[in-house]
Write a structure and sequence with these properties.
Length: 249
C-alpha cells in the first residue's frame, strides 16, 4: 500500500517531545516533508535529526508559540519553502495548574499557549489551505476539553480548542479544508512524567481510564494521522477522544 502523505507537507507545533514528536515521526514515516517547532532549540534539533534519519525532508524552528508574528512566519515559511501545506497539527500546550494552585491563577498564560496560539496558527494555515482548496488540521484538546477535569486555565483552554476547531470546520467546510481535534486522556509524555514515575499517582491515573492504563504517544499520533489523511475525508469539526474510555464512563 502507498504511503498516506507521499509528496505532501505537514507541520507540527510542540514537536520537541511527547505527542508532537511522535506525530511528526509518523508523518515522516507516511512520506511527508515535515516542519516542526517548539520552544527550545535542543529538542527541536533532536526531532529534526530523528526525521532526517527516516530520510524525510525536515526542518525546525525554536520560538515561543505565543509570539504571533513568529508563529505566522513559521507557517508562511513552510509554504514558501515547500510550496504547499497539506496537514497541520497544532499541539503545543502547557499544564501548569496543580490541584493546590489557587483557582484562576495563571489563567491568561495557559489560555495564550493552549488556545490563542491554536487560533493564530490556524488562521495562517487556513489561508494557505483555502487558497489551495485542500488541507487538514488537527488541534490538541484533551478529555479536559469535554469534562470538568483540571483547573480553569487548562479546562477552559481545552474547551476553547474544541470551539475553535468547530468554528474553523464550519467556515472552511466547502473549501476543501477539514478541521478536527484529538482529546487525549492521560498519555505517557514529558507532561505526565513526574506523576507517572510516582507509583501511587501512576496507579490513580491508570484507574481513571476504563482500560486501566495510561495511553502511549503513538496511540494519539495514529489518531492524528488518520484525521489528517484521506481516510477521514468526510470527517470535520469532530473532537475525537483518544482516552481508553475515560469519557464514556
Ligand atoms: N500527556 C497527556 O496526558 C495529555 C493529555 C491531554 C492533552 N495533552 C495535550 O497534548 C499536547 C502535547 O503535550 P505532551 O503530552 O506531548 O507534553 P509535552 O510537554 O511533551 O509537549 C508539549 C510541547 O509544547 C511545547 N510548548 C509549551 N509551551 C510552548 C510555547 N509557549 N511555545 C512553544 N512550544 C511550547 C513544550 O515545549 C512541549 O515540547 C498539549 O497540548 C497537552 O495539553 C496531553
Amino acid at each position: 500500500m502507498g504511503k498516506l502523505f507521499e509528496g505532501q507537507v505537514a507541520l507540527v507545533t510542540g514537536a520537541g517531545g511527547g505527542l508532537g514528536r511522535a506525530t511528526a515521526i509518523s508523518f515522516a514515516q507516511e512520506g511527508a516533508k515535515v516542519a516542526v517547532c517548539d520552544l527550545n532549540e535542543g529538542p527541536v534539533s533532536e526531532t529534526v535529526a530523528m526525521l532526517q534519519n527516516l530520510n524525510a525532508d525536515a526542518y525546525g524552528e525554536a520560538f515561543d508559540i505565543t509570539d504571533e508574528t513568529r508563529a505566522e512566519a513559521f507557517v508562511d515559511g513552510v509554504v514558501a519553502r515547500w510550496g504547499r501545506l497539506d496537514a497541520a497539527f497544532n499541539n503545543a500546550g502547557i499544564s501548569t495548574e496543580m490541584p493546590m494552585t489557587p483557582w484562576g491563577e495563571g489563567f491568561d498564560m495557559v489560555m495564550d499557549v493552549n488556545a490563542r496560539s491554536v487560533m493564530v496558527c490556524m488562521r495562517a494555515e487556513l489561508r494557505h489551505m483555502a487558497a489551495a482548496g485542500r488541507g487538514a488540521i488537527v488541534n490538541t484538546s484533551s478529555v479536559a476539553g469535554m469534562s470538568g477535569l483540571s483547573g480553569p486555565g487548562y479546562c477552559g483552554s481545552k474547551h476553547a480548542v474544541i470551539g475553535l476547531t468547530r468554528s474553523a470546520a464550519m467556515a472552511y467546510a466547502t473549501q476543501g479544508v477539514r478541521v478536527n481535534a484529538v482529546c487525549p486522556g492521560a498519555i505517557v509524555t514529558p507532561m505526565t512524567e513526574a506523576a507517572a514515575k510516582d507509583p501511587q499517582a501512576a496507579a490513580i491515573m491508570a484507574q481513571m481510564h476504563p482500560m486501566g492504563r495510561m495511553g502511549q504517544a503513538q496511540e494519539v499520533a495514529d489518531a492524528v494521522i488518520f484525521l489528517c489523511s484521506s481516510k477521514a475525508s468526510f470527517i470535520t469539526g469532530h473532537p475525537l477522544a483518544v482516552d481508553g474510555g475515560y469519557l464514556a464512563r
